[in-house]
Amino acid sequence: MIVFVSADEWIYPPAIVASEPIRIPRTGGAVMVFLRIRTNLPPLPLATAEKMLSDLGHPGPRLRTDHYVPSMSIRTALLALWDL
After folding, report:
1. Contact 50, 60 (CB under 8 A)
2. Torsion angles phi and psi, residue 79, rounded to 5
3. Over the stretch 51-78, which tens digit does the pLDDT of each residue have?
4. DSSP 3-state assignment of 44?
């Protein structure tokens, strides 16, 4: 799961990796993956998402930058923000 955050303080529904890694030729080992993104779900204000995650027991989920989310409990909490 990957989190996308905009510069204007919005968090978008999580992107889910939908493929196996595909090697990119002539890049020294770089890979790409295809992402599945729910475009029918609206973004949430970042402050609201942080407050909701804090209420669920995740006080520092690092939502201010785009990144991969390794923690299963934070993944579950992020999906719950959009009732997924």
Report:
1. no
2. -65, -35
3. 888 888 887 777 777 777 788 888 888 8
4. strand
Model pLDDT, residue 73: 86
pLDDT above 80 (res 18): yes
Q: Whole-angstrom Cα distance, residue 28 to residue 68?
A: 22
The domain of 37 spans 2-81
DSSP for the chain reads -EEEE-TTSEEEEEEEE-S--EEPTTSSS-EE--EE--TTSPPEEHHHHHHHHHHTT-S----SS-EE---HHHHHHHHHHTT-
When divided into structural domains, the chain yields a total of 1
**What's the mean pLDDT when you consider all of the chain?**
85
